[in-house]
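BUG: 3D viewer hangs when loading the predicted structure for this chain

Environment: internal workstation, default settings.
Expected: structure renders.
Actual: progress bar stalls at 90%.

Input used:
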Amino acid sequence: MKNKEEDFYKSLRIKINKWVKSDEGNTHKYVEYILVTPDFFYVLWQLMLDERIPYEFKMKVGLVVAYFISPIDLIPEAVVGPIGYLDDVALSAGLLNKMMEDSGDIVEEHWKEVSDINLLKLIKSILKVVDNLIGRGMWDRLRGKFDI
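Structure tokens produced before the viewer hung:
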């Protein structure tokens, strides 16, 4: 990872770990999903750089990475704190789910660099509750914007 992206990844991990130790964070019902936020960012960044990933997916991955980094999104982290990453997590899970069909081994390869959690099981778990995480209307808008 290059410096700017690595800094984003590290600061994101620090911010979320600090939040998890707070009263709000350690009791939040979706804390397990917020905790994987930095790992999803890392995997997406690696997939964007991976030459084995088809151009169509690289474009989508690049857009999702930009969404991650952007301070302006549907649930702004600057306003609501780490809970605001739930839309980023949902969007990442949707895209990674779609990518697993065509490039699953490559996605898994990058995932294993950061976590030993079963990625497909995690993705399916997130997508199962996505309407509760961010709301049906918001999920439909995100899926439409990113064609996932």
